[in-house]
Amino acid sequence: MKKLPILILPLLLLVGGCTHNLSKSSLALADRTITFVKLRENPDAYNGKFILLGGVIKVITHTPQGTQLEVVQYGLDGREMPDEASGSGGRFLAMVPERLGESVCRTGLLVSMAGEVSGKKVQLRDGEEYLYPVIAIKELRIVRTPDEDFFRTWVPDRP
Questions:
Q1: 91 near 124, Cβ under 8 Å?
Q2: Count of CA atoms in the C-beta half-sphere (13 A) of 51
Q3: Which H or E element spans position 63?
């Protein structure tokens, strides 16, 4: 009987490790044929399409319409978690219809999101015009905060 808890723990860890970062409804709506490369090339071609994206927040701007997040894109893994090792395809703007305070959202956060492509916007970046795909966010998940880097890089001492 004492072995039962020992057998259940690995099973719980396995099941917990297979969960997705975004809701089932967002996963069902998403058009997974749209790559970020295609979106960057021609955002207008995907207006109204529902997509999944991830990355790290670089700039936060409050507007009368809500909060605009400038995000450096990273590919998503099988659980819809941003994979920093995948490299970035560029940047996009994520529009959240609420004013998000610093207690909820700040630069440096790694995020996963689901939303609808709503066009493009040209803004100056490093003194040059940059074309950003614009996404109207329906779901935003914070994956990791900057102070959690310790857990990502920590390695136990070996005897």
A1: no
A2: 27
A3: strand 50-63
pLDDT tens readout for residues 34-89? 999 999 999 999 999 999 999 999 999 999 999 999 999 999 988 888 988 888 99
Where do the domains of the chain lie, and which CATH numbers do they carry? 19-144 (2.40.50.140)
Give the number of other CB atoms < 10 A from CB of residue 55: 28
Length of the chain: 159
Cβ 143 vs Cβ 111: under 8 Å: yes
Distance of alpha carbon 142 from alpha carbon 123, whole angstroms: 25
- CA-to-CA distance for 75 and 86, rounded, in angstroms? 6
pTM recorded for the entire structure: 0.79
